[in-house]
Amino acid sequence: GEDVEQSLFLSVREGDSSVINCTYTDSSSTYLYWYKQEPGAGLQLLTYIFSNMDMKQDQRLTVLLNKKDKHLSLRIADTQTGDSAIYFCAERRTGGGNKLTFGTGTQLKVEL
Amino acid sequence: GAGVSQSPSNKVTEKGKDVELRCDPISGHTALYWYRQSLGQGLEFLIYFQGNSAPDKSGLPSDRFSAERTGGSVSTLTIQRTQQEDSAVYLCASSFQAGGVNEQFFGPGTRLTVL
To answer: Do residues A110 and A85 lie in contact, with contact meaning Cβ atoms separated by under 8 Å?
Structure first.
């Protein structure tokens, strides 16, 4: 389909790992991104991965990319209450110019 | 340095009125983007500027929407004859260049409410 899909909600306990999943649409997308949106704030780029990579690690964040299944995931290790936010994946599609196509967003709630 | 700024932060208007939303990108960023975020539609691309020209206007939902960018800097998004379905948060982003990683930095948005 045309939509970039994510599950709507995820609840985890503080200190556990969180895994947020995303299914994107264009197998030839060049870059895939993860953005974070906190209440009342703009979007903040967390990390990105180039399409010729399978994995990228950046401190507590690990991005996994499965191009065959067009599946992207973001793992947050040792999740903290400050990680509570909405997380969006986004793809930059081949032939789509420079615009980003965003997923539906996953609301992460971190409980004590 | 300063990030992307947008004004106003909130705008309430009556159906049928025109509104102008302003975006100040990060200094030196050549590319500028407008998106909107609404409950029903999620985050949607509207228009992209490279310098003062707009090579991609494919996301503008109707001819009531227009945008311009002057001096390769400030951009204004204009919505004419606003409708209730235009109610959304309008987000502006800028990037240093259009190619490569194209990291887009977002402003805080303008929340538009059409009564």
So the answer is: no
**Tens-level pLDDT at each residue, chain B (115 residues):** 589 999 999 999 999 999 999 999 999 999 999 999 998 778 999 999 999 998 889 999 999 999 999 988 999 999 999 999 999 999 999 998 767 778 899 999 999 999 9
Closest CB to A99: pick one of B42, B56, B99. B56
Q: Which residues, listed in sequence order, are joined to residue A62 by a DSSP beta bridge? A: A57, A75
Length of chain A: 112
Which residues in chain A have Cβ-Cβ distances shorter than 8 Å to B99? 98
CA distance B83 to B17: 9
- Chosen from A49, A86, A98, A107 to mutate, greatest number of chain B CBs within 10 A: A98
The amino acid that residue A95 corresponds to is G
Q: Does B59 touch chain A (CB under 8 A)?
A: yes
